Amino acid sequence: MRVLIVDDHELFRAGLALLLRELYPGIELLHASTLSQGLHHARGELLNIVFLDLDLPDGHGCEALAELKESRPSLPVIVISADESMETISRCIELRAMGYVPKSSPPEALHAAISAVLVGGVFLPASSIARFRHDIGTSETPANEPGHERPGGSSEISNAAGLGLTPREFETLTWLVRGLPSKVIALKMGLEDVTVRKYVSHLLAHFNLRRRTELIVMLADRGIKLGVPPVTDPEHDRSLSAVARQRTD
């Protein structure tokens, strides 16, 4: 597994690296202290996932995330930040972050969060999940509904049958959660845009949701894990971005 850590505090990078090596002894880590360095690594390296701080010397909050996702649309990004405002967390999820980990988290919580996201789970602060659910007017999903798991519970990887989905719907879900827009998902799956939008509509209806943000919150709330994000190729991402720009959503 190859992971990029983008944070301007060397001590925090070192601590995060220790946690990651404890979880995955064979992990390969790349470090960057600025957004420009992070983008340089992201554009030239095969990577599974990026941990991104928003407060960088040459970054500007959520704009750093937007720039990274624009450059590498298929690369999953986990924000790790001292900013715990709902506005910032919501904006990061809208910008297709795979999760959000507050730096104020105690070591055991940070350990659990990292363990979850590296196997395809979504991590959000418990307080923000409650706020999201309040804002969208939903209550906790009953345990007998498809795919329900206790938050932070089983480490078992979910599959299509377990979530009550078709294989194509499940594949769409994994790409959607990792932050790909529908037109890029269509390219990856060799489908027309309209077909992927239909799968996305089916997913939202299946889980009784209205938009991707709610889907991310639901996955974080239930502790659902979708599998280790695959290595993403920057050259492939450049091709995807070029072709996607020629398509319309």
From TrEMBL:
Instruction: State the organism named in the record.
Output: Paraburkholderia phenazinium
Example of a GO biological process term? phosphorelay signal transduction system
Q: Which residues carry this modification: 4-aspartylphosphate?
A: 53
Keyword Phosphoprotein in annotation: yes
Is DNA-binding set as a keyword in this record? yes
According to UniProt, the name of this protein is Two component transcriptional regulator, LuxR family
**Keywords, sorted A to Z:** DNA-binding, Phosphoprotein
Domain called Response regulatory: residue spans: 2-118
| CDD domains from the UniProt entry | LuxR_C_like, REC_NarL-like
* Residue intervals of the HTH luxR-type domain: 158-223
- GO: which molecular function terms? DNA binding
* Annotated region (Disordered), positions in chain: 136-161, 229-249
Family matches, as InterPro entries: CheY-like_superfamily (IPR011006), EvgA-like (IPR051015), NreC/VraR/RcsB-like_REC (IPR058245), Sig_transdc_resp-reg_C-effctor (IPR016032), Sig_transdc_resp-reg_receiver (IPR001789), Tscrpt_reg_LuxR_C (IPR000792)
Tell me which SMART domains the record gives.
Answer: HTH_LUXR, REC
| UniProt cross-references to Gene3D superfamilies, sorted A to Z | 3.40.50.2300
